[in-house]
C-alpha cells in the first residue's frame, strides 16, 4: 500500500484555489439568478371568473404574499410615506368599481377570487391591479414623470404575418415574480396567454383569435378617477373575438389613465393615444401605416394635464429629443423605418434587445438599487399560426419561449 505524504503548503494552495473557484461559481450563479433563476412559470386557470381567481391565488399564494410585501416596502421607500396610508388615500380619492362593474364585471369577481385564494386583503388585491392609476395619483402629488415600456406593431403582408411586440418595463421589486397566465377557453372567455406578475390580472396579452394588447403609459394625458383602469381594459379587449366587438368596446368606455395602446386584430394593427376623454389614432409614419411603434410621450393626442403643458409643447417642437422616452422612440424609429415587407421576427427581436443608448436603452438590464428593468418581452404572431413568444426578464439575457394556441 502506497504512503502519501501531504504537502501542507501545496494543500493550502489547492484549498485556496478550490475555494476561489467555488466562490466565483456561486457569485456568477447568484448574479444570473438576479435576472432569471428559473423558467417562466406557466399557470393554467380555468372555470368561472371567480374560480380562475381562486386558482391564481392558491397556486401563487407564496409569491403573491412576497411581492405584495415588496410592493408596499417600495412605496414606503420611494415616497417616504406609509404605504397603507397612501394606498387608503388613493382608494378613497378614486371610484373605479362602478366602471369595472359596468364594463368588465367578471374581472372584479376574478380579483375577489385572487384575494380569497391567496388570503390577501381584498383592498390590497384590488389596489395592486391599479398600478398605473396609483402612479397617476402619485403624479398629481409630485409629478413622477414615469418613463417605461416600448411597443411595436406590424400589419401582415405577403411576406410575413402580423406582429405586435413589447418590452414590459416595471419596477425592480417585481423581479422574480413574472408569470405567464394561461386561461383556458370556456363559455365566457377565449383561450389567452397573459404576461403578468403574481397577484396581477395582466400586463399584456393575446387571445386565440389573434387579438393582442400592448400598453405603455402616457402620464401627461388627462386621467379620470372613475374611468376603467388599464388592466381591466386590456382584459376586456382580450375577451373579444371579433374586430367590431373590440371597437365597440373601445368607443363605449371612459378610460382611467393616459395610455398608448397597440392593439392587434388578426392582420391589422392599431395604435391609439388615449386620455380619459379622447382616443387618437397614431401613425409614426403616415406614408407607411402598417408599422407602428411608441414609447411614453404623446405626439397626436393633446388632451394634456396643465402641469405637463410646457413639456408637451417642447415634445411637439422637438426640444426634448435627449430625454428617456424620446431617446427610445428615436431608436425604434431608426430601426423600424424600413419597407414593411422587410420586417421579420429577427428584426423585431433585435430591436427589443437593443441598447443603442447607454442611458436610455430599449432593453433595460436589472440592476440592484435601480428603479425599472425589463420585466419581460413579448412577440405576438397574430396570423398564420398564432403564437406568443415571451422572456422572463430582459430579452438580451433570456431566450424567448414560444407557446401556441390549441385551436
Describe the structure.
The structure is a single chain. With 407 residues, the chain is of the alpha+beta class. It has a domain of 259 residues: Penicillin V Acylase, Chain A (4-Layer Sandwich), CATH 3.60.60.10. 39% of the residues lie in helices and 20% in strands. The chain contains 13 helices and 14 strands. An eight-stranded mixed β-sheet has the order 1-4-5-6-7-8-9-10, with helices on one face. A hairpin with an 8-residue loop joins strand 4 and strand 5. Helix 2 packs parallel to helix 6, helix 5 packs across helix 6 and helix 6 packs across helix 7. It is globular and about 50 Å long. The N and C termini lie far apart (71 Å). The N terminus is likely disordered.
Helix/strand layout:
Elements: H1 8-36, E1 42-45, H2 49-59, H3 61-79, H4 83-93, H5 97-103, H6 105-118, H7 122-128, H8 131-142, E2 150-154, E3 163-171, E4 178-183, E5 192-197, E6 204-207, E7 211-217, H9 230-238, H10 243-252, E8 259-265, E9 268-274, E10 279-281, E11 291-294, H11 309-316, H12 324-336, H13 345-352, E12 372-381, E13 387-392, E14 401-404
Parallel strand pairs: 1-4
Antiparallel strand pairs: 2-3, 2-11, 3-12, 4-5, 5-6, 6-7, 7-8, 8-9, 9-10, 12-13, 13-14
Helix pairs in contact: 2-6, 5-6, 6-7
Amino acid at each position: 500500500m502506497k504512503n502519501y505524504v501531504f504537502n501542507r503548503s501545496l494543500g493550502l494552495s489547492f484549498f485556496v484555489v478550490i475555494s476561489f473557484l467555488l466562490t466565483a461559481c456561486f457569485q456568477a450563479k447568484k448574479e444570473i439568478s438576479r435576472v432569471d433563476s428559473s423558467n417562466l412559470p406557466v399557470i393554467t386557470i380555468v372555470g368561472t371568473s371567480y374560480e380562475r381567481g381562486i386558482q391564481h391565488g392558491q397556486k401563487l399564494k407564496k409569491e403573491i404574499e412576497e411581492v405584495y410585501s415588496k410592493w408596499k416596502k417600495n412605496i414606503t421607500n420611494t415616497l417616504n410615506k406609509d404605504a397603507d396610508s397612501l394606498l387608503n388615500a388613493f382608494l378613497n380619492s378614486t371610484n373605479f368599481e362602478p366602471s369595472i362593474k359596468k364594463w368588465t364585471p367578471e374581472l372584479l369577481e376574478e380579483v375577489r377570487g385572487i384575494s380569497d385564494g391567496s388570503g390577501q386583503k381584498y383592498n390590497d388585491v384590488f389596489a395592486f391591479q391599479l398600478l398605473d392609476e396609483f402612479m397617476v395619483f402619485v403624479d398629481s402629488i409630485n409629478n413622477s414623470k414615469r418613463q417605461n415600456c416600448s411597443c411595436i406593431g406590424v400589419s401582415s403582408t405577403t411576406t410575413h404575418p402580423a406582429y405586435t411586440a413589447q418590452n414590459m418595463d416595471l419596477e425592480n421589486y417585481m423581479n422574480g415574480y413574472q408569470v405567464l397566465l394561461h386561461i383556458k377557453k370556456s363559455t365566457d372567455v377565449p383561450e389567452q396567454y397573459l404576461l403578468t406578475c403574481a397577484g396581477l390580472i395582466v400586463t399584456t396579452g393575446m387571445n386565440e383569435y389573434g387579438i393582442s394588447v400592448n400598453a405603455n403609459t402616457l402620464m401627461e394625458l388627462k386621467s379620470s378617477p372613475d374611468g376603467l383602469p388599464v388592466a381591466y381594459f386590456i382584459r376586456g379587449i382580450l375577451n373579444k373575438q371579433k374586430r367590431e366587438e373590440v371597437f365597440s368596446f373601445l368607443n363605449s368606455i371612459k378610460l382611467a389613465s393616459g395610455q398608448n395602446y397597440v392593439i392587434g386584430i388578426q392582420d391589422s394593427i392599431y395604435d391609439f393615444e388615449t386620455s380619459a376623454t379622447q382616443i387618437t389614432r397614431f401613425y409614426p409614419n403616415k406614408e407607411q401605416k402598417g408599422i407602428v411603434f411608441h414609447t411614453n410621450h404623446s405626439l397626436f393626442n393633446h388632451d394634456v394635464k396643465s402641469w405637463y403643458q410646457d413639456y408637451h409643447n417642447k415634445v411637439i417642437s422637438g426640444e426634448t429629443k435627449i430625454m428617456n422616452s424620446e431617446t427610445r422612440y428615436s431608436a425604434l424609429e431608426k430601426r423600424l423605418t424600413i419597407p414593411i415587407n422587410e420586417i421579420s421576427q429577427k428584426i423585431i427581436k433585435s430591436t427589443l434587445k437593443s441598447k443603442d443608448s447607454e442611458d436610455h436603452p430599449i432593453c433595460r438590464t436589472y440592476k440592484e438599487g435601480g428603479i425599472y428593468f425589463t420585466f419581460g418581452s413579448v412577440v405576438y404572431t397574430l396570423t398564420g399560426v398564432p403564437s406568443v413568444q415571451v422572456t422572463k426578464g430582459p430579452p438580451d439575457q433570456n431566450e424567448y419561449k414560444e407557446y401556441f394556441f390549441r385551436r
